[in-house]
Specification:
CATH topology of the largest domain: Trna Endonuclease, Chain: A, domain 1
Number of helices: 13
Distance between the termini: 29 Å
Shape: elongated
Structural class: alpha/beta
Number of domains: 3
Helix content: 40-55%
Largest sheet: 7 strands, mixed
Strand order of the largest sheet: 3-2-1-4-5-6-7
Radius of gyration: 25 Å
Length: about 375
């Protein structure tokens, strides 16, 4: 079932207005956005995404979204002047009074009304004649459309083909998490110090040079061509290699697990190192791994270092990572899901409690050996 025109009520949640528009079996020919003054910017973001799919968009200004009778008058007047248009109301958004006024106006005019369930993506028809109709929207949203509809511009994202050697190296590092956790933490700090100094060379201390497990880990990366160890100096092949050693290998591993699961879990889009520009046009953020499942944004932050150590602020690195995830979680509306991967398993108990309270899933240490199972359980919720 489809309608020529959808009249949508713009609110802070873009997804319920966007998913019916982009579903091929429900896609309308035209969109009307009922917009209050405080939602003009969000209407602009939504319009840009819809228009990019070659669907015309027009706006219907709502002077006061909390004036029930005023909203009703605006909508009844619009319906009266468009009596030949096949239009249905998507009543999911707007203020409660806007939604009530719109539903009553459409009922009075004998026009269909539907609601989009946030949990199931089912289109629920509110008209008695259509109540038995069932339609579930397909999970088709892409990362770019989803982010842009919430005001964030993706400026870079990658979908790399991971070589067999790098895949095997990451697998080996994950399977040896108990044995090499401390050594990888030390190597992470060495690479991080070189990055801050804008150098590709770092000298090992006498203590570091004598640690057998660190020597083993350096050998693994040396064999893969990422670095060389000469006379107590670690020489990184290039900046990308230094980034990979610093923790990029863990991001690659998480990304590959998502890619492997995509067909069976119906993950519609996924990317590594997604760089985004905030609505202010200045603030930039990077997401280690992001993917879309059932029209929901999932974000993964990967940390190979010691999350109990002091971070950039007075807080621990683990606290900083959770702050970042909580902030990024707001960019995709209420349904965004977040995960923190803690390779070394050193997240503080206070941070674990904070993560649980914020709904952030934490996967750490030995759990990483079964990351695919952890991911499958996460998205199934």
């Amino acid at each position: 079932m489809r309608f020529d025109t959808h009249l949508c009520l713009v609110s802070a949640q873009a997804t319920p207005n966007l998913t019916p528009v982009l579903d091929p079996a429900f896609r309308p020919k035209h969109i009307v956005l009922a917009v209050s003054r405080d939602m003009e910017e969000r209407a602009k973001w939504l319009s840009e995404v819809i228009s990019s799919h070659h669907i015309p968009v027009e706006r219907l200004p709502i002077p006061d979204p909390y004036d029930l009778h005023g909203c009703s008058d605006v909508l009844l007047n619009w319906l009266a002047s468009h009596d030949k248009v096949e239009v249905a109301l998507n009543v999911t958004g707007g203020t409660k009074l806007m939604a009530l006024a719109a539903q009553e106006a459409f009922r009075t005019a004998g026009r269909p009304v539907f609601y989009v369930s946030a949990e199931t993506d089912e289109v629920v028809f509110l008209d008695p004649a259509l109540r038995k109709e069932k339609f579930v929207l397909s999970p088709k949203l892409k990362l770019r459309d989803y982010l842009k509809s919430h005001g964030f511009t993706p400026i870079e994202q990658s979908k790399p083909n991971i070589s067999a050697s790098l895949r095997d190296l990451a697998d080996h590092l994950v399977s040896s998490v108990t044995r090499w956790s401390d050594a990888l933490g030390r190597l992470n700090a060495i690479a991080e110090a070189a990055e801050k100094a804008k150098r590709l060379v770092a000298r090992l201390t006498t203590e570091q040079a004598g640690i057998r497990s660190l020597e083993e880990v350096l050998g693994e990366f040396e064999q893969s061509g990422m670095l060389q160890v000469n006379n107590g100096e670690v020489c990184f092949a290039d900046e990308k290699s230094r980034d990979f050693v610093k923790g990029g290998w863990l991001e690659f591993h998480a990304y590959r697990c998502v890619a492997d699961l995509a067909p069976q879990l119906d993950i519609t889009d996924y990317a590594l190192n997604v760089k985004i520009l905030a609505p202010d046009g200045a603030t930039r953020n990077e997401i280690d791994c992001a993917f879309m499942h059932r029209n929901r944004l999932h974000l993964i932050e990967c940390k190979a270092g010691n999350l109990a150590a002091a971070g950039n602020t007075d807080e621990a690195k683990g606290t900083d990572a959770l702050y970042k995830l909580e902030s990024l979680g707001k960019l995709g509306g209420l349904r965004t899901q977040e995960m923190l991967i803690d390779y070394r398993g050193l997240l503080k108990e206070a941070d674990k409690r904070r993560a649980a309270q914020s709904g952030i899933k934490v996967v750490s240490a030995g759990q990483l050996r079964n990351l695919r199972a952890e991911l499958a359980q996460w998205v199934s919720k």
